[in-house]
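Re: export button greyed out
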Amino acid sequence: RKEVEQDPGPFNVPEGATVAFNCTYSNSASQSFFWYRQDCRKEPKLLMSVYSSGNEDGRFTAQLNRASQYISLLIRDSKLSDSATYLCVVNPLGNQFYFGTGTSLTVIP
Amino acid sequence: DAGVIQSPRHEVTEMGQEVTLRCKPISGHDYLFWYRQTMMRGLELLIYFNNNVPIDDSGMPEDRFSAKMPNASFSTLKIQPSEPRDSAVYFCASTLGTGFYGYTFGSGTRLTVV
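Workaround output, generated via the alternate export path:
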């Protein structure tokens, strides 16, 4: 079983829509969780950390459900510039991060 | 801070040639990671270092791959001999301590072996 699993999509949504991605992880002892964004032919960049209580950054909301072992990312009022691949990242213990294969989002005018 | 710096940005080489990829981590970061990304397999961890010491190299595909970190500000990933299936984007990333703040990636080296 993979450490981290994501729906690869693609998700094609109109501008202004709300879209949500989920990601499941296998190691219940996982300590840290993140969402990264990767634009085409670029490096992954940290979008936001995911805290136990959930956290929000503008139009982006991240949540953690330890009981069900998943994290989610909600994007409200989608912009064209949100088009990218979103990578779920889990840090079970120590310093090795496990990356999901990414979910592709295209926001359509 | 200049971020994580990788060179070269692009490399095209013939099968059988030696390839050396370079990385300069963010100053003060004590962990350095080498990843490979392909469409088929996504991001794969190849090896990581803590304070210049290799900690886990279980992701290195085979003996043709080797990595070194002679000091805190420089690391290399070498492929010898290179094969077409090594074609991928190779990323270097660094972080401080437990990684609580996430990794910072370099812009990657796009390797094509023909």
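Chain A touches chain B through 21 residues (CB under 8 Å). The button fix ships in the next patch.
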